[in-house]
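Hi everyone, sorry if this is the wrong subforum. Our group has a chain we'd like a structural model of before ordering constructs, and none of us has done structure prediction before. Sequence below.
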Amino acid sequence: MVTMTKIGMLTIGQTPRVDLLPALIEILGDEYEIVEAGALDGLSLEDVKGIEILPDDYVLVSRMRDGTEVKITKRFVIPRVQEKITELEEKSVRLTVIMCTGAFPQYESKGLVVTPQEILKGVLNGSLKKGRLGVVYPTEEQMPGAQSNFGSTDVETYADATSPYEGSEELEALAERLSAQNLDLILLNCFGFSSDLKKYIAERTGVPTIQSNAVVARVLKELAI
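Answer:
Right subforum, don't worry. Here is the predicted structure as tokens:
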């Protein structure tokens, strides 16, 4: 009997993530067992809408099981992520990815916990030493951090935002704004941004575009044994 390697997919929203997993599995291949966990699992929409968001809070965007977009705080999510890592490891998972491009602390773990932001920064640093970088966020509240998170003395950032979970009415306007910025590279800085959005933005702007979840899936494939 062949034992499949388990990979933990830990969303900051609710599971199952039927919007994300098919594309990730296409990259990973079918030789891995995907075990899902969600920081908002067990909570109702009313519970989540009741989360207090203070002026200084870092706002994250995710979705409920039925696809409803929700905004939550990093402060609320961080301890719940640790709880879910522990639950995954009780199921013999030793490789877990946090399905969010925000910054997260070092978690206690018996294995590897992959946080996408550091991976993306490495790809960006290796791809663009000088020029203009477009960073597309899932919410306007995150935009002010573009230059400090992804820019440098020689890399100037342009920040924009669109929802990964709502309709596509704003995508044409987004593509037009990006096209007008004379960008060298575009980062879709949310795990929820799809391959369809990447294709649309890349074709409309003519600029190389990084799809966060696809990059991270390829790293997971290297780490899995």
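For your construct planning: The chain has a mean pLDDT of 95. Strands lie at 5-11, 32-38, 59-63, 69-73, 95-99, 112-114, 131-137, 155-161, 185-188, 209-211.
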